[in-house]
From TrEMBL:
Residue runs in coiled coils: none
Upper taxonomic lineage: Eukaryota, Viridiplantae, Chlorophyta, core chlorophytes, Chlorophyceae
InterPro entries given in the database record: AB_hydrolase_fold (IPR029058)
Species annotation: Edaphochlamys debaryana
SUPFAM superfamilies documented for this protein: alpha/beta-Hydrolases (SSF53474)
Name of the protein in question: Uncharacterized protein
Gene3D superfamilies assigned to the protein according to its UniProt record, in alphabetical order: alpha/beta hydrolase (3.40.50.1820)
Region Disordered, residue ranges: 245-270, 334-365
Comp. bias intervals (Acidic residues): 345-354
């Protein structure tokens, strides 16, 4: 369906929105129907970008990589990214949403709520088509300031929301007040989010969040949610979770869902990972909760990426990422696309050829945004209700 300017009369704004309508044959991930094809997906994936005042837009590296991985997986009816008001250049004729970027996350959250209603109830199934026959459902992957906006909107979106991933949610003291991240975290981790599968992904070198503080905050939120669940349902589950949280929980590797083209048959989520949902990697790994609401384990999860900062450009400790299983989904995706060896570098560069001498080969540094995207999409596939 491509890029279009979507007018939201209730907000008095138009947003630059890029919509990809997925086909079932783009990837089925082991969910065939009786006819051999997966039943039509009804979940729209919305991917959100960082702060516009720091040049954040839907062309951000993390956003683009998540969109690429999710478009190939076949689990979503549409994959959508958009420029928040005033972002992407601020000129709709050149690509971008008109106006100036907002200084208030509450304003962008209101825009998100209005856009979500258009995506779920009004957006045509295909180019030139009519509105959907039935209301769709929504999943959100939000990065940096986008995670602040999504967190602020959790309560309003909750009835239609199936899962939410917050990448690099900035929880430092300054961001809590200046960006409104404190209110976003309260909504995301508190009663508005209870029972919703939620994943926080953060690098342990993140410049805007201390990984240790995030671990403690998540452990406290898990305890509060478990207590609310036990008190409300006698331990059974208004939220559909089980078990009390542990502050020292370890990282589970999400089951990488094999991409299309891997032997002509996509493996079911869970088999290729070597760790079943709820299983844990080495105890030396960064803290994370296992499982999710309605699919076993906790609804609020954390995964800390060693050697990675807020921007996901590079990694200082690729060995640690591999040791705790955070690269498995990316390697499975790379193998399915026919990349030799599933190596993480973009490509090998012959240093001698560059110098005109011939001889040595240098390995380009790891770019973790692609690995993050594959991890996030595999996590979503594991958490979304079966079709």
């Amino acid at each position: 369906m491509g890029r279009q300017l979507v007018h939201l009369p209730s907000r008095g704004v138009a947003l630059d929105v890029d919509v990809h309508a997925c086909r079932a044959e783009e990837g089925e991930h082991g969910l065939p129907s009786a006819s051999g094809r997966a039943p039509p997906a009804s979940t729209v994936l919305l991917v959100m970008h960082p702060w516009g005042w720091l040049s954040g837009s839907m062309d951000d590296l993390v956003v683009v990589n998540v969109c690429r991985s999710s478009m190939a997986c076949g689990r979503f009816s549409h994959v959508v990214r958009y420029n928040m008001r005033g972002c992407g250049g601020g000129d709709p004729d050149e690509g971008g949403s008109p106006g100036w970027p907002s200084l208030l996350a509450s304003t962008d959250a209101g825009d998100l709520e209005a856009l979500a209603q258009w995506l779920l109830a009004e957006m045509p199934e295909r180019e030139g088509g009519g509105p959907p026959a039935s209301r769709r459902r929504l999943a959100v992957v939000a990065y940096s300031y986008g995670a602040v906006v999504a967190g602020r909107a959790v309560g309003a979106l909750r009835a239609d929301l199936e899962a939410l991933v917050a990448v690099g949610l900035p929880l430092g003291l300054l961001c809590r007040f200046a960006l409104g991240a404190g209110a976003a975290w309260s909504s995301l981790s508190g009663p508005p989010g209870y029972g919703l599968p939620r994943l926080l992904a953060v690098g342990d070198l993140d410049q805007f969040s201390d990984a240790g503080a995030v671990r403690r905050a998540v452990a406290q939120a898990q305890a509060a949610e478990a207590e609310a669940e036990t008190g409300t349902a006698g331990g059974g589950g208004c939220c559909g979770n089980s078990g009390a949280p542990r502050s020292g929980a370890t990282v589970p590797a999400p089951a990488p869902a094999s991409p299309p083209g891997a032997g002509g048959q996509a493996a079911t989520a869970g088999a290729a990972a070597g760790l079943e949902p709820g299983a844990a990697a080495a105890s030396t790994g960064p803290a994370a909760a296992s499982g999710g609401s309605g699919r076993g384990g906790r609804a609020l999860e954390l995964v800390v990426w060693p050697g990675v900062d807020h921007f996901w450009f590079g990694c200082r400790d690729e060995g640690a990422l591999r040791a705790v299983g955070l690269l498995r989904a990316w390697e499975a995706e790379a193998e399915g696309r026919g990349r030799e060896g599933g190596a993480l570098q973009e490509e090998d560069v012959d240093e001698a050829d560059e110098a005109g001498q011939g001889g040595r080969t240098r390995r380009r540094p790891l770019r973790p945004a692609a690995a993050l995207a594959a991890y996030v999409v595999s996590w979503l596939i594991a958490k979304l209700p079966p079709r």
